[in-house]
Amino acid sequence: MASYRILLIRLRQIGDVVFTTPALRPLRQRFADAHLTYLVEPAAAAVVAHNPHINDVIVAPRRGGVRGALADGALIRRIRATRYDLAIDFHGGPRSSLIAWLSGAPVRVGYNVVGRGWMYTRRVARPRELRPRHSVENQWDLLSALGIPPPDPAGYPVEMIIDREAGLRVAERLARAGVQDEDRLIVVHVSAGNPFRRWPLAAFATTLAILIAHDRRRRIIVTAGPSDRQAAGRVIAQARTLVQPDERDRIIACGEFSIDELRALVERAALYIGGDSGPLHIASTSRVPIVALYGPTLPVRSGPWRSPHWIAESVEVEGLSCRPCDQRTCTPGDFRCLGWLRPEQVIGAAERALAAAGNW
User: Fold this and answer.
1) Less CB within 10 Å around the terminal CB: N or C of the chain?
2) Are 158 and 285 in contact (CB under 8 A)?
3) What is the pLDDT of residue 359?
4) Cα angle at 244 between 240 and 247, to 5 degrees?
């Protein structure tokens, strides 16, 4: 049995969990014989399910009311029974800080957030303002409290291991859709859980149509998340009206993909295009060229955290005084940070990325 036990906590969104994965390798290097457990919510569980640096993953569903309280009580009893020596709360929210405190770990590392900082034995400052600093670095501050040196994206990129079964399912679906090995596959994700981060569907449709017209070897798979499942179908239908009849079958409807299937799909692609949302960060765990669309957020804060040798293009509307914002109210009222983004900007970035990778 491992002599030292570490509990890692990061609740909520997919991208948030992806941004913690660079920290897992140095933690394993520092605590080579420790038992590492990662506590995560269901939506992001697949991100760390097969990570080689983790011994155990605990999935904590979000429930309200009495049932939620009872479930959290059982969860905390399970955690306390494990007798962790160290708890690191990468989240800092009310629920995660309470879990860290009640874990019983004698060393608890977290952010010095007003009203919750006292729950940790080692506290790290976290300014409230939006800073032009990457989220990986912000979360890595907690590792600095343990004496681990600052991160390097080349040495510690974001990671997500491809699930073999998911890979087989994706390969079968692509084959049924008529995708051949020699095809240049472009994956385009057209939805986002946050309406502030949604590029207009008509702009996506125009972009797809022009990319298809530029090269007959290209096939485009359009994906969307649970926040807007109909978005993919609407983009596909509109894009097909903009291309020649014999090009329509190269814009492919392939159904929904789970998170682990999306990771396997991206691995097969020549290019990924999408906004600043969870699927973009899943794509960042590959070496596939990326074109990322930014609206209220900044590339410096949430761009792909990986080797600079792996191609990534950021497309944004620069010079707006309202960027970045807290994504609660659009001050100008017209969502110009994405609405003013032109298809030709995205197409240009896509062609540059494909050319640089030799996939044109």
Assistant:
1) N
2) yes
3) 58
4) 70
CA 77 from centre of chain: 30
Strands of the sheet containing 86-89, edge to edge, are 56-59, 35-40, 5-9, 86-89, 107-111, 122-124
Same domain, 173 and 226: yes
Are residues 340 and 200 part of one domain?
A: yes
CA atoms of 290 and 266, how far apart (whole Å)? 10
Rg, the chain, Cα only: 21
Other beta carbons less than 10 A from residue 324's beta carbon: 19
Question: 180 and 90, same structural domain?
Answer: no
Question: Which among 286, 290, 275, 293 is positioned nearest to 224, based on CA atoms?
Answer: 275
Is 11 found in the same domain as 138?
A: yes
Contact 212, 243 (CB under 8 A): yes
Collect the ranges in the chain with pLDDT lower than 50: 1
Q: 145 and 125 in contact (C-beta within 8 Å)? A: no
What lies within 8 Å, CB to CB, of 115 at 6+ separation is: none
* Residue located via tokens 């240009």: 348
Q: What was the pLDDT predicted at 158?
A: 97
* Neighbour tally for 132: CB within 10 Å: 9
Residues 6+ apart with CB under 8 A from 4: 31, 33, 34, 35, 85, 86
Q: Which residues contact 183 (CB under 8 A, 6 or more apart)?
A: 217, 218, 219
Per-residue pLDDT tens digits for 293-333: 999 999 999 999 999 999 999 999 999 999 998 888 999 99
Q: What is the pTM of this model?
A: 0.94
Same domain, 53 and 182: no
SS3 45: helix
CATH at residue 295: 3.40.50.2000
Question: By residue range, what is the domain housing residue 196?
Answer: 167-357
Looking at residue 1, its pLDDT comes to 44
Residues 205 and 341 in one domain: yes
Q: Based on the domain organization, do 134 and 62 belong to the same domain? A: yes
Which single residue is written with the structure tokens 């300014």? 127
Assess whether 92 and 227 both reside in one domain: no
> Which residues, in sequence order, are CB contacts of 79 under 8 Å at separation 6+?
7, 39, 58, 99, 102, 103, 104
